[in-house]
Amino acid sequence: MTSSPAANDISIVLAGEAGQGIQTIEQLLTKILKLAGFHIHATKEYMSRVRGGTNSTSIRVASRSVQAPLQRIDLLVPLDEKVIPHLQNRITEETIIAGDRDVVGDVPRLLHVPLRKLSREIGNEMYANTMALGLILGLLAVDAQVMEKYLGSRFAAKGEEVVANNLKAARLGYERSLALRESGGIRFPEIIRHDIRDEIMVNGTEAVALGAIAGGCQCITSYPMTPGTGVITFMAQHQHDFNLLVEQAEDEIAAINMALGAWYAGARAMVTTSGGGFALMTEGISLAGMLETPVVIHLAQRPGPATGLPTRTEQGDLELALYAGHGEFPRIILAPESLQGAFDLSRKAFDLADRYQVPVIILTDQYLVDTYYNTAVFVLDPRETAHSIVETVEDYQRYRLTPDGISPRGIPGRGLGLVAADSDEHDEAGHITEDSEVRVKMVDKRLYKLEKIKEELLPAGLEGSGDCRTIVVSWGSTNPIVREALGRLGSNDVAQIAIQQVYPLPADLERYLAKADKTIIVENNATSQMGRLIQRETGHRFHHAVLKYNGLPFTVEELVGDLQKCLGAVKN
Question: Of 35, 225, 477, 567, which one has the greatest count of Cβ atoms within 10 A?
């Protein structure tokens, strides 16, 4: 039995019931494979329950850097009888299934590995997952010493017996893989290895948190909500390393108001949440708009409405982020496409919020925050944090009218002036007013900032020739998937605009779209929220929309097929 994946590229899926340790094995596998010199991309599908259902990790092992998931499965290791029915739409005649016949039954193309029997001999069926890890690493010809050294260090804190049993399980799986390779029962294309010891293996959650810390974040106040919780968890684990104040508030309303209070006092603060929690924060966002107080909000999207699919992914909260809060006031929305982008834009969010005194929303999704891959080390070079804070004078006016709408921001205790703050409309000194003329001036002042913001933000980022007749637009986490799909299509007449600066939209976007004969929008939602935003801002209506909203991210293969249909020609 042989597999025929694309050259230098193998797609491996390990799956089982929730509670079988799939996430732990994912972390172990990715780290060991990276140590062995492979480029790795790993993403997961998991149920919103403690036990039951089917959880899976999809690990792409490649000879080059990859940032997109695949539909196909080259090697499937099922630890539960429900796995194969659950993943049936991804299994092909080329898929190799290495598993226990006693668990999955007599399925086609099964290479029997008695995981249950062998793990019982060790003393616990839970060791089947470590055995599966050894099996996969052996099939990829990873040096057994690399595997054993990492497992030994990883389980050392749990005692000698746990270390010994995990090593025994991994060796048993590794030995089974050698037998399969020697018998010719399984064969993969050679994956070229690289010296990537200086690269790091992180996920999107860690990238956002590290970017926030690099941006000068001193305080995070949040209430847990999947998939945004990981950011506060990571920062809590490292609060003493970076002198952070970490506060789990009683609810999302308290969380955002605490963050506003921190900024008012001169600290840089953020909140992290998902759609349902963000909905509770909307009054606080309006308060930030009226107070002209900076705040950074990480919104990790998941499918709604209500609880929806709490552990799946979707780009369904763009309009929520765009319109949240009553009244009219400016905001900035950033949607990173990659781990590097998550770090860079999270870092930049704090400077933007500080400079323009507006809410800045970092819009990610479950797919991005839970995805692992190896990437270059984030640059954490020390730099002067550009606080836009002034020392107040005795006649200080917090909301002084200025040509660009940005008033000098003072904080209590720094200078001689009174720093007034009120949620009612106010005059330049911050005193409540109902004067109609002052109201108009203050609204205009706040909105003037948007024009100033537009001068600083990024260009559209056209990838390809500016003379291309067809343009594909995507945003956030879909960008790398679209990029690889277009690379496979190999057309020189198709360009991509990969948006990470969601609002305000890039100034040159309208010009590019107006020149194209055909435009296609790709989004992980049902109603083309970005398409509607672009139409509102530019008047451009897309010719085609490729939309997905079943709770899963796009895969490269399905996008190739969808784009071929839109382009009107099938290419090999």
Answer: 477
